[in-house]
Design brief:
The protein is mostly beta strands. The chain is about 10% helix and about 35% strand. Strand 6 and strand 7 form a beta hairpin.
Length: about 300
C-alpha cells in the first residue's frame, strides 16, 4: 500500500510540475501519572458543528517573492501556487501543496472546523495525509504570501471509521490517548503520540491509529490530533485527554475543542474551557476522562 500511495503522490506532483497554476484544487479511569491534587472547571456543552472557528493569522514570512521574470525555481520547478487532494484508503486525504519559487512558506490548512499550521520545505513542497471528517472533504489552504486554494476529495469509505479529534492553539502540549480493549498505559493497544499505531494495521483489521497535524515550531499555531478506529471496534475503545501542567502554561486559561465524527456523518463539537492549576503543579497532569461521553476532570 505504501508503494501505491507513493506512486499516487508522485503522479500528483508530476502533474503539478507539468501544469502548475491549476489545482483541485476518536471510558474509564486514567492510569496515575504524578501525585499532585489539583482542581479545575471544565465546560463541555455540546455545540453544533456550525461553530465558526476562525483561522489564526500567520506571522509575516521571510520568503522572497519571485521576480517578474522568474518562471522556474532554483530546482527547475515552475513557479506558482498549486494544490492537489487525492482520496486514499482509510478515508484519508493525501494533500500536496507546491509553491516552488517561494520556499519555506507558512501555511494554514483548514478542514471541517479544524485548522493546523504547516510550512513548505526548501523546494517549496508540503505533503500531508489528513483523516477526513466529511465527504466530500473540502480543504482550504492559505499561505502567508497571500495565496489561497481549495481542494476537494470524495471518501466513499468514511462511514467505516470512527474518528475523534482534539484541537488547540499554541504550546499547550495536549495529548489524546486511546485505550483499545482495556489496554493499560504503555501496553499494546494504548495509542498516543509516542505509540501512534499504523494505518496499515487498521486497514488489515487491527487497531486504530493517531494522526498529528500542525507544526509546533510555528509560534501559537493551531495543532490537531485525530484518532481513527474501525467502527466495529469503537465500542471497545476509551479515550482520554492528557493536559500537562507546564511552566509555560501553568495558571493560564486553556481553550480547546473536542470533535467526534458520528455514525450519521455529522461532526459533534465540544468546547473545552478551563484555567490550569498554578505553577506549584508543574510536572503533573489534568486528565479529562470519558472525553466523548460525559466528560469529567481528574487530577493525577
Amino acid at each position: 500500500m505504501a508503494t501505491s500511495k507513493a506512486i499516487l503522490r508522485a503522479s500528483a506532483l508530476t502533474a503539478l510540475c507539468l501544469a502548475l497554476g491549476g489545482g483541485i484544487a476518536m471510558s474509564g479511569l486514567w492510569p496515575a501519572r504524578g501525585n499532585s491534587q489539583t482542581q479545575a472547571t471544565v465546560s463541555a456543552d455540546l455545540v453544533t458543528p456550525s461553530v465558526d472557528l476562525a483561522a489564526q493569522a500567520m506571522p509575516p514570512s521571510a520568503s522572497p517573492a519571485p521576480t517578474p521574470a522568474q518562471s522556474v525555481s532554483a530546482f527547475g520547478l515552475p513557479c506558482g501556487f498549486a494544490v492537489t487532494a487525492t482520496a486514499m484508503p482509510g478515508a484519508m486525504v493525501a494533500l500536496d501543496v507546491m509553491d516552488p519559487c517561494r520556499p519555506e512558506t507558512e501555511l494554514e490548512i483548514s478542514h471541517a472546523n479544524l485548522s493546523f499550521a504547516a510550512r513548505t520545505d526548501v523546494m517549496g513542497l508540503f505533503t500531508v495525509d489528513i483523516p477526513a471528517l466529511e465527504t466530500p472533504a473540502f480543504i482550504t489552504i492559505h499561505s502567508d504570501t497571500g495565496e489561497e486554494a481549495m481542494a476537494i476529495a470524495g471518501l466513499p469509505d468514511l462511514g467505516a471509521y470512527a474518528r475523534v479529534a482534539i484541537a488547540w492553539n499554541g504550546d499547550l502540549g495536549l495529548e489524546l490517548h486511546a485505550f483499545e480493549n482495556d489496554a493499560d498505559f504503555g501496553a499494546p493497544g494504548h495509542i498516543w503520540q509516542e505509540a501512534p499505531g499504523d494505518i496499515a494495521e487498521t486497514l488489515a483489521g487491527g487497531g486504530g491509529f493517531l494522526t498529528l497535524l500542525g507544526d509546533p515550531r510555528i509560534v501559537q499555531s493551531p495543532q490537531v490530533q485525530i484518532y481513527t478506529v474501525a467502527q466495529a471496534q469503537a465500542a471497545d475503545t476509551r479515550v482520554s485527554l492528557d493536559i500537562p501542567i507546564k511552566a509555560e502554561t501553568c495558571g493560564r486559561p486553556l481553550d480547546a475543542r473536542a470533535l467526534q465524527l458520528t455514525q450519521s456523518g455529522a461532526v459533534d463539537i465540544w468546547p473545552i474551557t478551563l484555567t490550569l492549576p498554578g505553577c506549584d503543579g508543574v510536572g503533573d497532569f489534568l486528565v479529562l476522562q470519558n472525553l466523548f461521553d460525559a466528560p469529567r476532570l481528574a487530577a493525577n
